[in-house]
Design goal:
- Helix content is about 60%, strand content about 0%.
- It is mostly helical.
- It contains 11 helices and no strands.
- The chain has 2 domains: about 90 residues, no CATH class; about 130 residues, no CATH class.
- α2 packs parallel to α5 and α3 runs antiparallel to α9.
Length: about 220
């Protein structure tokens, strides 16, 4: 239980920071929400160093029509991320993960990454993609699927450099599994006549409406 706590806290605070960032893009209470989001992001990084991977995931939530404003609002998060990366670059060699050889940049990370992306998608992710294939003419749905796949791939990256196992444990897939639900769930809801709705057009709206319905597809993988 204690071993899993850092992963859970990192996911909780990171997801809460992302939710604040999404709300921030449309709220008039920008200073308050920005302060809350930055504080939550700090808590996420204190929970586990791999929380820095949330930064490229924040980029996936940027609406194409408001990218300049979103980029400016994201500068404090970027500054924190670069500071954490610089600190890790200086002190990382003292980390027990480096000293015991369980983390290495020379690990077969590509094979590990491909294998575990498939494991996260199995079974419900594959089923969702099969449904999307039926509605392949809906560009919004295909865009949601692309964002979900990118999210999964990015979310697994920090764990692909572990040398003690090529199979990422389920407790380390919370982040990768998140957007599969948040991005696809709003798009696959039937309307009153049973037809699939297109859902929100931009990633931020998808994340906002789907964040409460995130599915943990990695739960089927086993620890």
């Amino acid at each position: 239980m204690v071993r899993c706590m850092s992963e859970l806290l990192q996911f909780f605070f990171g997801a809460a920071a992302l939710y604040s960032y999404i709300r921030l893009q449309r709220s008039r209470q920008a200073p308050f929400l920005l302060g809350i989001g930055v504080l939550l992001f700090v808590f996420a990084m204190l929970s586990k160093e791999s929380a820095i991977i949330w930064l490229p995931l924040f980029a996936l939530a940027i609406p194409p029509d408001r990218w300049r404003k979103s980029l400016m609002l994201g500068l404090p998060f970027l500054a924190l991320g670069f500071a954490a990366f610089a600190l890790f670059a200086v002190t990382g060699r003292n980390s027990f993960r480096y000293s015991d050889g369980s983390f290495s940049l020379h690990s077969p990370f590509i094979a590990t990454w491909i294998r575990n992306v498939g494991r996260v998608l199995w079974i419900w992710g594959v089923a969702s993609l099969a449904v999307l294939a039926h509605y392949r003419r809906e560009r919004e749905l295909l865009r949601a699927a692309a964002i979900a796949l990118l999210w999964i791939g990015i979310g697994l990256l920090p764990y692909c450099f572990l040398t003690y196992s090529s199979q990422i444990s389920s407790r380390q897939t919370y982040l990768a599994s998140n957007w599969l639900g948040a991005a696809l769930w709003p798009s696959l809801q039937p309307d009153s006549e049973g037809r699939i709705q297109r859902g929100p057009r931009n990633p931020a709206d998808r994340g906002h409406s789907g964040i409460g319905h995130c599915t943990q597809c990695g739960d089927s993988m086993g620890a």
